[in-house]
Amino acid sequence: MWDPYACFQRHQFPNGLVLYHQEWKERGCVAVSFLVHTGLSSDPEDKEGLAHFIEHVVSSNARRPYVELKRFFSENGGSVNLGVTGLYATHYSFLLPNQEEVVEEGFQDFSSFLIGATLNKEIEAQRKIIIAEFFEKYPIKSMYEALMSGRNTLFSYGWYTRAYSALGNLDAIRSITQEDIMSYYRKEYVPANMTIICVGDIDFASIKRIISCTSLGQGVARTRKQIMFQDAALQKPLTTKETFLLPKDMMERANYRRVFLFPLSVGEEVVGAFDHLLYKQMFNYFREEKGWVYDVRISMSHSEQFYECTIELLGIPRENLELIDSCLDICISEITKETDKLESYKKSAIAGTYVLDITARGLVKATLNLLKISDRIPNLIDRRRAIEQITISNIERLSQYALSENSWSLTIK
User: Fold this and answer.
1) Are 108 and 96 in contact (CB under 8 A)?
2) Tens digit of pLDDT for each residue in 295-334?
3) What gap in Å lies between CA 242 and CA 255, rounded to an integer?
4) % of the chain exceeding 90 in pLDDT
5) What share of residues in the chain are helix, strand, coil (percent, to 5)?
6) How far is CA 153 from the centre of its chain?
7) Residue 97 in contact with residue 76, Cβ under 8 Å?
8) pLDDT (0 to 100) of residue 164
């Protein structure tokens, strides 16, 4: 069976840039992503939001004006994404037809702002846009304060290496200078700190030649930045429950969030199975049986030392708040008995690896997400094997980390 994740060719240029390429003949398009291995975790402590600020500024300093840049991709039938900043990486991407000269133009455009640019245009304009983005995400000051209250608490327990928000804070955003921007850019935006993923109707030799003719493929070699992902001792929170009080009458109902950690060694497939089973159990209990919430949310993120899982229950009737912790613990305990549901999940997850309807852009995006936290692309055989090996004892082990006595919760009311 075809396994697209096993079909990549890897090439490292003399300057340290890494390319992953896969040729899809007769597909008519070429999808490319540029992964810069720097993100929120690399922000200086007094300049939170700097990585995100640079993501906004770089494309405004390309070889052609921003509007013309967007028009080039649109008029050639393609599309362009001029930046998304994450915790450990920032990425940019484009999709173009499989005309070599057009693809080469796209690479020239991206290399003009990713490598060696002078970032002196549109800084104040982008600052205004970022501040507007901040207030769109946090229209009420208390929302940001609630987020940072929780993050500062977890930082004090050693659960975070630093307390941060995705957009930084307003004081830092307002204080960032061009000198700050250029200092960070020169350090982080270098070929040795980048990975390119390319899938489409273009051969390996041609894509290497195109890259070599741009600033991405040139310059001296530097040491490639490494993020070490390894298990750390998980500390129990000093306080397991906190409450953030909003101004009176701001919210008729309350929101609840529980955060807990899993060791990296348990593996992403086991964490995925746990999240699936718990979501189903919580949905049936809190929505279908009790009618307390419209929906439940579970999210998982990958840090350098552990998996962080967050449960959110939004719009809880205040009279039921005292019951939430115990009810949630019951849900967690129940999934340790659901062997049949675990086996059903495993069958569905394994079957899903055979039913691939993936586009070039979809494969590039999925591979990009894998390479943000690893220098290896796992193939589907390895993934199926990991899913097959999940047992109910794995779920029982993770459930202990998720119980109220080992987790931290925040009620906002």
Assistant:
1) no
2) 899 999 887 788 989 999 999 999 999 999 999 999 999 9
3) 12
4) 70
5) 50, 20, 30
6) 22
7) yes
8) 75
- The predicted model scores a pTM of 0.91
Calpha distance 262→307 (Å, rounded): 5
Structure tokens at 140: 């009420």
Burial of 398 (0-12, 13-18, 19+ CB in 10 A): buried
Q: From CA 209, how far away is CA 202, in angstroms rounded?
A: 11
Question: Residue 248 carries which side chain, given as an amino acid letter?
Answer: K
Which residue, 341, 339, 353, is CA-closest to 386? 353
- Say how far residue 282 (Cα) sits from the centre of its chain: 25
What is the rounded CA–CA span in Å between residue 321 and residue 355? 42
Binned at pLDDT 50, 70 and 90, residue 294 comes out as very high
Token pair in block for residue 148? 């940072």
DSSP sequence for 14-77? TTS-EEEEEE-TT--EEEEEEEES--GGGS-TT-TTHHHHHHHHHGGGSSS-HHHHHHHHHHTT
Distance in angstroms (rounded) separating the CA atoms of residues 345 and 230:
28
Q: Where are the beta strands (DSSP E) in 98-213?
A: 194-200
Distance CA 248, CA 107 (A): 54
Half-sphere exposure of 168 (CA within 13 A, CB side): 28
CA pair distance 89, 225, nearest whole angstrom: 11
The answer to whether 392 touches 342, Cβ cutoff 8 Å, is yes
Cα–Cα dist 103/97, whole Å: 7
Instruction: Tell me which residue has tokens 């009311």.
Output: 413
φ/ψ of 221, rounded to 5, equals -75, 145
**pLDDT averaged over every residue in the chain:** 91
Structure tokens at 326: 């115990």
Q: Are strands 194-200 and 29-36 parallel, antiparallel or unpaired?
A: antiparallel
SS3 letters for 364-378?
HHHHHHHHCCCCCCC
* Strands 254-263 and 79-85, bridge-based pairing: unpaired
Per-residue pLDDT, 139: 86
Average pLDDT, integer, range 47-69: 94
CA–CA dist 335, 1 (Å, integer): 34
DSSP 265-288: GG-HHHHHHHHHHHHHHHIIIIII
Question: For residue 150, what are the CA distances in angstroms to 146, 311, 400?
Answer: 6, 14, 22
HSE-CB at 270 with a 13 A cutoff on CA atoms is: 19
